[in-house]
Amino acid sequence: MQKVVAVGADHAGFPLKEDLKAYLKEQGYEVRDVGTDSVGSVDYPDFAVRVAEAVASGEAPWGLLICGTGIGMAITANKVPGVRAACCADPFSARMARAHNDANILTMGGRVVGPGLAREIVKAWLESRFEGGRHARRTAKIEALEERVGRGGQRERSAPGGPGPARGEGHER
Predict the structure, then answer these.
(1) pTM above 0.90, yes or no
(2) Which residues, at least 6 apart from 5, have a Cβ–Cβ distance to it below 8 Å?
């Protein structure tokens, strides 16, 4: 398998991204950096989708995304079919994300973990392997859901707090 990691960050994750790029290169990985290139304010979804699409297309087997908390990056990346992004702040969760969930993108918070811990998390995640077995059955269910929703199986949603099909179909208020 090719040792390529697509990396991206917003302004809050930029310093940690730069540190982890150097670490990945030291470990023999090829790094494909999709930005950002400074601490100037940017929107995290722009970078999350670039990494997610690189992973989903097979351009890179793994992705690493960093924003302030890692949460926004994970939410965005998981919108791309074929992506299983996990936000981790400790090595155990990172190992389990790979072993049980076959996570192909790791997200972290640059305001949550420091460089030393982040390196431990990345190491644990990259060195872990998907266990398959009962976990393969579960990831297959996730893939089936992606297929169903991708074909229009998702229910309509309304604006937050407003009436609509997702909040009480056919019920009077």
Answers:
(1) no
(2) 24, 29, 30, 31, 32, 60, 62, 63, 64, 126
